[in-house]
Design brief:
Layout: E1 3-12, E2 15-23, H1 28-39, H2 43-46, H3 51-63, E3 76-77, E4 80-88, E5 94-103, E6 105-107, E7 122-124, H4 125-145, E8 153-155, E9 162-164, E10 169-174, E11 186-188, H5 211-215, H6 218-222, H7 249-255, H8 259-263, H9 274-288, E12 292-295, E13 301-302, E14 324-327, E15 332-336, H10 338-348, H11 352-356, E16 365-370, H12 377-384, E17 404-407, H13 416-422, E18 431-432, E19 435-440, E20 447-451, E21 454-455, H14 474-486, H15 505-510, H16 513-525
């Protein structure tokens, strides 16, 4: 039976296209695939990207990298994240370019953190990609300051300040749902209507712990398995069921939310992605009305001093909406979950405190695209947008900037599911790759491969020296910033850096007044339990 529905696509503020489409949807995955195909009909008119186009672009960039640091096919898996720059060419065509890419699943414990800023504390793919993008933005600012023609920045209205060029935007891609709150999503009883196989009775542990649910969370498993350091196999499509996506009255209600509801949600999608986003949201509404058996687990733990997870069997295992820290290798970490960090970047921007000295306003992600994996639009909305939607009193240049949320139908070839599917008996157990890869579009040493927070392959003798440092660790990014400062004419220094005796990383971060004010508002209104690094760990030069 085919289901028909009418959807209004908002192309511009005053331009709407009403489309009638008829869908028979055999599975959740088919929903995303079919709607992407429908959305492509608007490509000529709207000239916009789709979620599948973005994921394909990121997977292709990864495939072009050298083998070093990549998972061993059929035995090791990893997660991928990337930052994509979208711009308009002189002939008015949209151009998408991967400017930073990261892989990784690990975090170091508190005792392994360094007061020299020379260790990567958090090597989850999302964090690696963002830190690589800071390298990229720093080089672009240097080019702008030196008059070499940046493709990102142009001169702002304030002395010494720069702003993102008109027509340039950034979006974020991750191959898997971010760890933390966004990963707490329902698992359905019906095998074909949920994002991964259901729990069988023989997989339920009497004490309420669900091994299947925990296994399906790649990042949690990564922190508890043995470390280890190319082509794209594809999983067979699951058997099709009679599951149908119900598009009707509730869809219309979702498109006409009240102003209060709209404020807490991501912007109404435009062009090619409109139908995809609508169907993903509607899918969640349909699924949550069905009988739930359990939820996917996240390995991230609630921050100390706040509410705890009930740890009850099934749906009562987790509390939602809480700040969480990533698990380490046998000891706690101070690294907030990727869900929490993405939510924070939607208020403070992803440029960080140092680069904010040079920028007229924060730089935000316009969209977040997730690859094929267990996914819930409602959970993403709750974790990344709703928690910070009411933050007010932000300084000039900062605002609550909720990204558009989308899912691709394309899965990463080196995901845990793909790796287990292709695993051969006798080849050792499937485990997460111990290496993390950072690549960014910079002119000097774009590739950086690390393990355990240091350069991959470094000897114990070199630990503590510059040879062991990742190019995206705190001290290296600080030195890149100081190089930018050195090439800036004193008469064109940003106001926040003039006439001050600044020496340490901490000093330069603290005098970024607008950024610190925005951070204070975010903590006081939305994230009062946000963990902050000890000052002693930030006093390096």
């Amino acid at each position: 039976m085919n289901i028909g529905c009418i959807v209004e696509i908002h192309i511009q503020e005053r331009l709407r296209i009403t489309v009638f489409y008829s869908l028979y949807v055999p599975s959740q995955q088919a929903a995303a695939t079919i709607v992407n195909q429908i959305a492509s009909l608007f490509k000529t008119r709207c000239n916009m990207w789709t979620a599948d186009e973005i994921s394909k672009l990121c997977y292709q960039r990864f495939s072009e990298l050298p083998k070093r640091g990549k998972p061993e096919p059929g035995r090791e898996w990893t997660l991928l994240a990337a930052v994509v720059k979208c711009s308009v060419s002189p002939n008015q065509e949209k151009v998408e370019e991967v400017v930073s890419l990261g892989t990784g699943t690990k975090c170091i414990g508190r005792s392994a953190m360094s007061s020299k800023g020379d260790v990567l504390n958090d090597s989850h793919a999302e964090v690696i990609a963002r830190r690589g993008c800071i390298r990229y933005l720093t080089e672009q600012l240097r080019m702008a300051v030196c008059g070499q023609g940046s493709t990102v920045f142009c001169q702002g209205e304030e002395m010494g300040k720069w702003k993102v060029q008109s027509g340039v935007s950034f979006l974020f891609f991750t191959s898997h749902t971010p760890c933390g709150d966004a990963s707490i999503i329902p698992m359905m009883i019906d095998r074909q209507s949920q994002p991964c196989p259901p729990i069988r009775s023989d997989e339920i542990i009497p004490n309420g712990t669900n091994e299947k649910a925990e296994r399906l969370n790649p990042k949690r498993r990564a922190e508890t398995q043995t470390d280890g350091i190319n082509k794209h196999p594809r999983l067979e499509e699951p058997e099709k069921s009679q599951y149908e996506l119900q598009c009707g009255g509730s869809l219309v209600e979702n498109l006409t939310d009240s102003p209060a509801q709209a404020h807490a949600e991501s912007p109404r999608p435009e062009g090619k992605n409109a139908l995809t986003n609508v169907v993903l949201r509607q899918r969640d509404n349909v699924l949550t009305q069905q009988s739930l058996q359990d939820i996917h687990r996240t390995g991230a733990k609630c921050v100390p001093g706040g509410p705890e997870d009930p740890l009850q069997p099934g749906l009562g295992y987790h509390s939602t909406g809480l700040l969480r820290v990533k698990p380490g290798r046998g000891e706690p970490t101070l690294s907030l979950s990727c869900s929490d960090k993405l939510a924070r970047w939607a208020v403070l921007g992803f440029q960080g405190a140092l680069l904010s000295h040079y920028l007229q306003g924060a730089v935000y992600f316009s969209a977040i695209v997730v690859g094929r994996c267990p996914y819930s639009h409602q959970a993403m909305q709750r974790a990344l947008i709703t928690r910070c939607s009411e933050v007010t009193a932000l300084p000039a240049g900062y605002t609550v900037q909720p990204p558009e949320l989308l899912q691709s139908s394309l899965e990463f070839a080196h995901s845990q599911a793909q790796t287990e599917h292709n695993h051969q008996p006798g080849k050792g157990r499937v485990s997460p790759c111990g290496a993390a890869i950072s690549w960014c579009a910079v002119s000097d040493q774009p590739l950086d491969v690390t393990a355990n927070g240091y350069k991959h392959g470094v000897t114990k003798k070199a630990l503590g020296t510059s040879k062991a440092r990742s190019l995206i660790c705190k001290v290296e990014l600080f030195h890149s910033f100081l190089s930018l400062l050195a090439v800036t004419d004193k008469s064109h220094l940003p106001e926040s850096l003039r006439g001050k005796e600044l020496q340490t990383y901490w000093d330069y971060k603290q005098v970024a007044q607008s950024y610190q004010q925005a951070s204070l508002q975010l903590r006081s209104q939305a994230f009062p339990l946000w963990l902050r690094s000890d000052r002693d760990l930030l006093q390096f030069h």
